[in-house]
Amino acid sequence: xxxxxxxxxxxxxxxxxxxxxxxxxxxxxxxxxxxxxxxxxxxxxxxxxxxxxxxxxxxxxxxxxxxxxxxxxxxxxxxxxxxxxxxxxxxxxxxxxxxxxxxxxxxxxxxxxxxxxxxxxxxxxxxxxxxxxxxxxxxxxxxxxxxxxxxxxxxxxxxxxxxxxxxxxxxxxxxxxxxxxxxxxxxxxxxxxxxxxxxxxxxxxxxxxxxxxxxxxxxxxxxxxxxxxxxxxxxxxxxxxxxxxxxxxxxxxxxxxxxxxxxxxxxxxxxxxxxxxxxxxxxxxxxxxxxxxxxxxxxxxxxxxxxxxxxxxxxxxxxxxxxxxxxxxxxxxxxxxxxx
Length: 340
Prior knowledge:
Elements: H1 7-22, H2 30-41, H3 45-57, H4 63-74, H5 79-123, H6 126-176, H7 186-197, E1 206-214, H8 217-224, H9 226-243, E2 250-255, E3 258-266, H10 268-284, E4 287-288, E5 295-297, E6 301-307, H11 314-330, E7 336-338
Parallel strand pairs: 6-7
Antiparallel strand pairs: 1-3, 1-6, 2-3, 4-5
């Protein structure tokens, strides 16, 4: 699920979106709405930057510009890129298979020539020897040419395969990584959680989930603007990447200003420690004005920790972690609570 705002939050965003729609020339269609919704929500830094660049030369964005922005920064990676890459790989493999087949055919013919030459040599048939030697030489040249062609094709395709491999990695990352924070996005989180739920935990441990939320984030946006809000989210993403060092753990931007940490084969105590380390480092984080280097603001986060129980599905685990997070908020924020 791409959008996780509550009804109240989305209603507030709707008012902002309607204002933005009225300030530009693009029609009021779903594509325009999606672009301005993500801009107003401050969840898509690349889109925000794209809009700011476009407005430098086009203060009132046209339909063509809005559609381009949607295609570049909002639309999720569809199957077209994957199909293109797969098609190119299949084409290369088919070409190499055909070249290998031709080389095999030439090798077979070359083998027959060698067998024939062996027979006439054993028979000591001088005229036949001359004829077979000439034919064998011709087959040798053909075989050598075919082998060289295959070798050249393999070498040429090696670089192409590496390029396509990079394209596949990029397409996968674009589909599952949040561009602002470079941690997993909601789609990546859902996939990791689904995979985790299919694995039994190791003895004396459980699969745990930490949910984190930036305290008073709406005030940050209202006071300092969405660009600063994006910087706060980006900085928290960096804190999470540096704090959660275990490669078996997964960090994700769950939505808006909410983040999640998946901790497989872990204990509640270990999960609480990880969550509190992130909380403390976030509190120590200082957001500075890039021009003056003066500290503009500091933020805190609240967290909730839950362990998977027998019979849990993804929603059960998320609901318990969210409930623990809500208790942290109720208790005064800037703390981590364990689910009952």
